[in-house]
Structure formats: C-alpha cells, structure tokens
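P.,

For your records, the input lines for the assembly:
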Amino acid sequence: MKKKLGQVWSVIWGLFIVLKYAFKKPVTLRYPEEKRKLPERSRGRHYLTKWDDGLERCVGCELCAIVCPAQAIYVKAAENEPGDVHSHGERYASDFQINMLRCIYCGYCEEACPTGAIILGNDYELSGYTKESLIYTKEMLTEKKPGDSGRDPHREI
Amino acid sequence: MQEIIVETLIKGIVVITFLMLSAAYMTFLERIVMARMQLRLGPNRVGPLGLLQPIADGIKLLCKEQFRPANIDVFTYWLAPGISLFTALFAFTLIPFGGTVNIWGYPVKLQIADINSGIVFLLAFSSLAVYGIVLAGWSSNNRYSLLGGLRGTAQMISYEVPMGLSLLTVALSAGTLSLSEIVSAQSNHWFIWTNPISFIIYLITAFAETNRAPFDLPEAEQELTAGYHTEYGGMKFAIFFLGEYVNILAVSAIAVTLFLGGWQGPWDIPVVWFLVKVALFVFFFMWVRSTMARFRYDQLMSFGWKVLVPIATLNLLITAYFKLVLT
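Structure tokens returned:
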C-alpha cells in the first residue's frame, strides 16, 4: 500500500518537475538567425595553413592521405624548383583535394601532419548543390594570407 | 417555432466555428507548450510568433494527395473520420456556456439544447465515439490499424464504466440529470469540493476516453506506427485530428460543467469564466502529455478494472449514503 501511494505521489511530483522546466530558457536556437558559438577545437572544414612568411606549410608528404580512414584526401606532390619555391621543404603539394562528402571530420589528418599544414576549422555550414562543388580544391583550402584560418602562423606545428 | 430553429441554427454555427478554430489553435498551443516543457522553442516561423502555423498546416493537409490503400471497405473508410468528429462535436449541443442573456432585446439561452437528461446523452455519445476508431481500424485493411482499433475499443469500453459511475455521483448530489440544473445547483459550492474522488476518477477516464497520453494506446506511434489512422492522410487525417482536439475540449467542458461550477464565477461574465476553466483543463491535458509515458496494455486494463471501477463504485455508495443521511 505504501509503495502504491509512493508511486502515485511520484507521478504528481513528476508533473511539477516538468512544469518547472517550462519556465527555463529553451536550449534550442532560431538557427539561421542565431548561431551557437562553437568550442575552439571543434572540427569543421579544412584549411591548408601558411607560415608567417607566406610559404605553404604543406610539404607534400601524403601522410594525411594515408591516414584518412574515409580516403577523402588526394595529394599530388611536386619538387620545389629554384625560383618557384612554395614550401620550406624539398617538395610541396602541387594539387590537394578533399572530398567533403567523404570526410568524416575525425581530425586524423591534422594529427598526422608533420608540419601542421592541414587543420580543421570551425566552419560547419558546408552544404552545396552539386557533388563537384563539394570537392574542395587547393585554391579553396589554402588560406589567402597567413592566419586566415584562425591559427597562429608562428606556431611550430 | 421558426424563431427557435433560426436561433438554434445560429448558435450551432457559432459554436462549430469556434470549436474548429480553437481545435486548430490547440494543435499550435500544444506544440508550443510541449516544446517549452522540453526546453525547445516550438513552431515560430509562420507569421508573427508562428501564429499562422495552423493555417499553414491546414493548407498543407488540404493539398495532399488523395491516398487510398488497396482492398479497403470504401464506405466505412470514409465514414469513420466523420463519426469521430461528429460525436466529439455533439457534446457541445448539451453544454451550457452561460445563463440567459439579452442580445438586442431578445432573450437567448447560451445552450443549444437544454434537455432534461443531459448526462445520459453525454455518456451515450461519448460511447459512440469508439465507432470512429474501431471502424477506421477495421476498414483500413492494415494490421496496425486493426490492432489500434481493437485497443481503442477495449480501452474506451472499460473506462466508460468508472466514468459513468463517477458522473452518477454528480447526478446524485445535484438531484437532477439536466446539465443546466446541475450548474445552477453548484451556485453555492462546486462539486469538486463535495465529490473530489469522482473528479479525479473522471479526469483519469477523460484521458482514456480522448486517447491522450498516458492512455494513447490506440495510436501508439512506437508500436503501431499511428494506430487506427495509419492509412489516413490529408484532410481525412485532419478530421481525425480535429475530432481528437474537439474531444479534449468536450471532456474539459463536461468536467467544468459537472465539477467546477460551469459558467458561474465572480462578476457577470459567464462565457469568459467557462472558457477560462476549459483552457485550464486543456493546459492540463498538454502538461500530462509532456510528462507521462504510455501505459502498458495489461497495466491499462488492470488499472481500469481493478482500481478505478472498485473505487468509483465505493465512491458512489458513499455519496448515496451521505445523500440519504443529509436530506
């Protein structure tokens, strides 16, 4: 009997717990108008970063393409010729593509990169109308000037 | 004679229009209330504060493809939503919204039909409501629908018994079956104070009668996709939906009439008091829906027959005893 009364009481008490929540601020946002500020280290679209002298960090080692579990990255490496220097190493990526439809945003590429060239930024609004528009080319990925991606261009990796 | 017919027609049209509009906006209100209780925002896109959402929903439902599953019983399939809505609307012909008021020097009684056995009629029509559900479930030629219809039948028939018993105590206390006289019998004290147990039993059975959570077994989404209205789409589904919400309004209005003094209240604003009390009940329905989980089928049955029926019977006997002793 006492147990039954306890059950009835918990039902009534539950009603008031729910009522209490009706006066709290909703956790959802009016999305396109309001946007939630993401944590700094959340993983969104990729950037190919540059050193502060404007040279590319990527040395075309293809470790990111090897480690990528979704096989989303394509790297074509080329030698740095005198007078046409792109990076601090011997080689640079002459072509770099990421298929954003395949990418799972795991961040392994960022971890594998020996020079800290590829990083995952905070931008998560990545929809597009065609498959072709979602294969990001090197021009789209490389930051226009050092520091555009939000990472410090002076950092080691 | 002609005057009475015209008066009744006008009252009927006003009531139906009001009910349809309020049922449409109840869907909106329910979405907002449930959203707030679940820390969401709810619909807020269509129009200012999302207030045009029911109209957008209505247009969407009207424009939907006319869908009909194979091998159905066509006549019953079309009839079932009509029965659901009709039985729900019918309760409002009997409920007094106010006393007699003068409109342009013409006395108008704010009740469509003041018949002397109102409670019996109400019970009869709330029992008929099960036909809408069982016919919809049976005619759709779908196992989910059939199961939903069967559950609806069993549930509504079992909960009809305690509901009738709890309403009988009110009839006993008031000494009449006429709804307007029951309201005037509550001018000193509401029956919720003299018959609190009947009120609680009525409230519980009202949830079961309207197939609302936690008694929404006939349309349990997780088990039966949508139960008896699985195969209904577009406006036919909308009629079921309207029927459900008008039914909520109906059971709320009955509860207000029988237990909360109907349209009576301080100051001379009868209809407003009635609407405020009904709105409280409607809010309660939404509140409970966002709180409670669905009953299991055997729990539902044993709760109805092993708990509610004995308590209601005992309550009726005690009320009868006090009625005998006190008069």
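Two observations worth noting. Strands of chain A lie at 46-48, 73-79, 91-99, 118-120, 135-136. Chain A touches chain B at residues 11, 14-15, 17-19, 21-22, 24-30 (CB under 8 Å).

Regards
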